[in-house]
Amino acid sequence: MRGRGGVSFDAVIDVQNVSKRFGGLRAVNNCSLRVERGSITGLIGPNGAGKSTLFNLVAGNIVPDEGRIFFDGQDVTGLKPHQLFHRGMLRTFQIAHEFSNMTALENLMMVPSNQTGESLIKTWLAPGAVKDAERHVRQKALDVIDFLKLGHVKYELAGNLSGGQKKLLELGRTMMVDAKVVLLDEVAAGVNRTLLQDLAANIERMNQELGYTFFVIEHDMDLIGRLCDPVIVMAQGEKIAEGPMEEIRANPEIIEAYFGAPVEAA
Amino acid sequence: MSVARRSLLLFAGLFVLFVVVGWALGAANISLLLVQSFAYALVALGLNIQWGYGGLFNFGIMGMLMLGGAAVTFISYPVNAQFWGSEGPLMLGKALMALLAGFLLIWGARRADRLGIKGKWKSFVTVLAWIVAYIVYRSQIDPAAAYIESAGGGWVGGLGLHPVLGWLFGGVLAAGVAYVVGKICLGLRTDYLAIATIGISEIIRALLKNMDWLTRGTLTVSPIPWPTPLPQDLQAQGVSIADSFIYARLGFLALVLIILAIAFFLVQRAYGGPWGRMMRAIRDNHIAAASMGKDVTRRQLEIFVLGSVLMGIGGAILVSFQQIYDPGSYQPINHTFLIWVMVIVGGAGNNWGAVFGALLIYITWMISDPVAQAVMNAISGWSTDIGWGGIPEIQSRASQMRVFVLGVVITIALRYAPRGLIPEVVRREA
Description:
The structure holds two protein chains of two kinds.
Chain A: E1 11-22, E2 25-36, E3 40-44, H1 51-58, E4 66-71, E5 74-75, H2 81-86, E6 89-91, H3 104-109, H4 120-125, H5 127-147, H6 163-174, E7 181-185, H7 193-209, E8 213-217, H8 221-227, E9 231-235, E10 238-243, H9 245-250, H10 252-259
Parallel strand pairs in A: 3-8, 3-9, 6-7, 7-8
Antiparallel strand pairs in A: 1-2, 1-4, 4-5, 9-10
Chain B: H1 2-25, H2 27-53, H3 61-76, H4 81-84, H5 88-110, H6 119-150, H7 163-185, H8 190-210, H9 212-215, H10 231-236, H11 241-272, H12 274-284, H13 286-291, H14 296-322, H15 332-346, H16 351-385, H17 394-416
Helix pairs in contact in B: 1-2, 1-16, 2-11, 2-14, 2-15, 2-16, 3-7, 3-8, 3-14, 5-6, 7-14, 15-16, 15-17, 16-17
């Protein structure tokens, strides 16, 4: 079920003393945290706590000034996003990063790596093999589209989709390949309540049946409470607490740092 | 289906335009325009790969065209016996060795950390290596160039091989240069890449214009041979002078069309498949594409090189056809921005659009001068008749009208068809 109760502490992501400065701002300050394999780990904190920066560091979009990041037991500090992707780390973005001039279906079909047709030589010399591979990719994408109930917009340009649909599409991209870890950056923001229930159920299912590890930034405390164990709290670039949601809710220090501070809309 | 129908109508309209212009200017002139516009279509296809698929701002097309021209000149121009009989080849060989030695030196300096030289010291050693390499190379190339230009036959001449080989070499040369340029510059995005490529094409122009030993520079090289029979060859076989130009140019046109068709087929297939999808994804959002496992830098280099190949081939064909290589005649307006107008008006991200734009813009560009001249002559005659006096210097005024007409065309196109006349197609196929 949720995590593995912390008995065998097998960290799939291990962030050690990482710092990142932007000019004079210490966005992430000597932060250490671990994400246990098979868990759905939540990451919460007030605005400007450094959550998204931490995600960018873990996913390789930016390189830390100090500290090391380990993924699956290996030091991946400084690796590029596409290299981490091939090791099984996928992410979604806080502000949807759709491919706006491509259809929703194409947005999904571009994801699988090392597609036969991505090589020019094979495209020109082995069109049959490309077509076969393409049929599989297409079927997979259609399955994901159906799963996300986006069938009615599959031929719509992704740029024309609603904010929530774009978020779903981002989640869909992570379902196109077998990932070890998926980083979800506010995936629920802008998604309607009914769909959100499906989304949560889907995340749980992927976690339990397919063994995905999720690392989730979210402002929707109900969703965090339902999905995540443990929950890590960040404030001012540092981890200030970690534990089950009930404990976090009861911790006065956190209420001070987070719930006491003006809470932004989820 | 409306897109296909619209494209068909546009191409039909273009055909009518060519027929009308051909009727007005004569078959010899229209066949000349056709050859050149289809060669430009190849170049536009190259830019469409870079910008339409990949979103790369290449404003250095002129440099690639010049490289293609230099390549075909070198491959297809007759052998310069005086050069090969002189000390020139040996001296050039030495200069080449010096160049290679210089690169080895720099390569070694970049690996100085293996000898325990690190940080600032490594940078210092690298800079030092560059300086030494430069001095060594110049010590060999300067006397070689001076000798060739004075006593060694003036310049290196050509190899006397088939012009089509020269066209292919034009593609290879452009690819090689594009690879190096791309390695350095593709980290720059959007407008920064545009600025860098403008600078690079100017560097290429300055080099080719001033390396007299290699290209004869502003002295120009002619006549560069054709791959197909020249008008003179046909005349020797008894074809009348007027007909000989038409048939010779149609022969050349056939060859250009074959090459364009092959290139179009390959490019279209790549664009329609997963390769094109990946490139469009990178264009739309390179951050997300990288997070989805695509090696953005490498793929952008790939499209930059592929597009440059077509530009190099197109540039080589243009030089072959004109039979003269004149590095001084290249201008960014004619050889970079004209191509951009072709792709923007035709439709970025659509190969049919790029070809359509190339044909339409090239013929507009070429006929706006004579048309403006005719219009001005008419107005001038009329105003003289009523006593207001004629328009002075009609010829030079008319030639300026080209740029004006081009400006009007792109303004209208951007107003009414911002994505081009034959825009990128959304793939809604079942």
